[in-house]
Design brief:
Blueprint: E1 11-15, H1 22-33, E2 37-39, H2 40-48, H3 52-59, H4 61-75, E3 82-84, H5 93-102, E4 103-109, H6 112-119, H7 133-148, E5 153-156, H8 162-178
Parallel strand pairs: 1-3, 1-4, 2-3, 4-5
Bound molecules: shikimate-3-phosphate.
Length: 190
């Protein structure tokens, strides 16, 4: 019996702060499970025909968030896949609700110092422009951790290489599907 079969029944959505490896881990996880991979940031860029930096500067953050919400709803209509969400996606109550009802959500979590070091290597993230990454990440963590904490699964990645995190995520997903939590009567039917 294919031990990954139960992991292919629902979309696996990765949430968490920028720099934690949602895209890199997601791509590898999809490969390991033989599932398609979707990256919400790339899909928003494709839909808008411009980069995230340009969407923020030309249209504003609200337009980006609206595009992100629509893209996530569309992706969740697709057959099961691994979905890397942008760091802010899970903050939209609507996106959070649909992600939680149609996917199994996994919060990838790492120390802010680790994330700050990683995000400093790239200058493509509009929220970081002209600011100290660690300070931004501290603010985001404070605002977002309560929402990320609503994910079904939490994986503390430390500073591990992405392939190590993939193994950790697979173990956590397997344990989750072997022993799923009882359904919450307040959740909408799936
Ligand atoms: C954002 C994170 C980015 C991208 C955008 C906004 C955020 O995605 O969606 O720059 O609000 O945290 P990553 O988490 O993939 O970097």
């Amino acid at each position: 019996m294919d031990r990954f079969a139960p992991l292919r029944l629902r979309t696996i959505a990765l949430v968490g702060l920028m720099g934690v490896g949602k895209s890199s881990v997601g791509r590898r996880l999809a490969n390991a499970l033989d599932l398609p991979f979707r990256d919400a940031d790339l899909e928003v860029e494709a839909a808008a025909g411009r980069s995230i930096s340009d969407i923020f500067s030309d249209l504003g953050e609200a337009a980006f968030r609206e595009g992100e919400r629509r893209v996530i709803a569309r992706l969740l209509d697709e057959p099961p896949h691994v979905l890397a969400t942008g760091g802010g996606a899970f903050m939209s109550p609507e996106s959070r609700a649909i992600l939680k009802s149609r996917a199994v959500t996994v919060w990838l979590k790492a120390d802010l110092e680790v994330l700050a070091r990683r995000v400093s290597r790239k200058d493509t993230r509009p929220l970081l422009v002209g600011r100290d990454p660690l300070e931004v990440l501290r603010e985001l963590a404070q605002a977002r951790y309560p929402a990320y904490g609503q994910a079904e699964i939490i994986v503390e990645t430390g500073d591990a290489a992405h392939h190590v995190t993939v193994e950790q995520v697979i173990r956590a997903l397997s344990a989750y599907f072997e022993n799923p939590p009882p359904a919450n009567p307040e959740d909408p039917p799936q």
